[in-house]
Amino acid sequence: MNAQFKKGILELCVLVLTAKGDKYGYELVQMISEKFFIAEGTVYPLLRRLTKEGYFSTYLKESSGGPPRKYYTLTVEGRAYMDELVSEWNTFYEGVNLIVKEGLGDGAE
Amino acid sequence: MNAQFKKGILELCVLVLTAKGDKYGYELVQMISEKFFIAEGTVYPLLRRLTKEGYFSTYLKESSGGPPRKYYTLTVEGRAYMDELVSEWNTFYEGVNLIVKEGLGDGAE
DNA sequence: TTTAGTACCTTGCAATATACAGTACTGAAT
DNA sequence: ATTCAGTACTGTATATTGCAAGGTACTAAA
């Protein structure tokens, strides 16, 4: 999968995936990996950055069968930022799809 | 518009927009600008790179009302690469939309 | 002659995904 | 007992690419 496509989108992904409930890093890696390849080394720095920017708060929790997990909770600002990104994403991907349709010419232009 | 979203996608855009007929740089800038913001300084280097990589061939043509235009013609390799990118894009945006749906929970998860 | 529009080019910067390397815990297989 | 796979998090160096901001140069209208 084209690595460039993911720029900015992974941010959107981790934000929306924590919207309905706290998630830990490794769990997010697995959830996103179901849809397309993602490197572990990408997610953790991203989560740290978003936390630093105030979009997440975190807490540790013990795990049976491994080291403790760091859970990420979306803050109020995080939720607002997520809404903004989702809205931008919708505008964006629809625009791209129009261009693709226009270019490939399935009779709709 | 989030600048990161466009990484790699502008490449896809200029390729598909030349699929049905040769286009010149400024024209591509205008076509893409109808859907979302794009900086002129982004498109020209991109077109040069894709030409260097063998995906475009070019020719100059006089214009009434301005300097000569540089037209870009999609090569056979360019078309193959475009097909690949379109396919990757489709997989990608559908994956992202599933994640967004999953996260925002409109009952479909 | 000055401005707006057309049309192209170039450089430096910022953002971010990846590769790669490392730490550390648990449990099953050798 | 030890090795390995899986879980879980951290950190750094690198490559790619979009943007800002500058520039050149042509035509036509104010």
Automatic annotation (TrEMBL), chains A, B:
Domain of life the protein comes from: Bacteria
Coiled-coil blocks: none
Source organism per UniProt: Fictibacillus fluitans
InterPro entries cross-referenced by the UniProt entry: Metal_resp_DNA-bind_regulator (IPR052509), Tscrpt_reg_PadR_N (IPR005149), WH-like_DNA-bd_sf (IPR036388), WH_DNA-bd_sf (IPR036390)
The protein's name: PadR family transcriptional regulator
Pfam family, one: PadR
SUPFAM superfamilies: Winged helix' DNA-binding domain
Domain called Transcription regulator PadR N-terminal: residue spans: 14-83
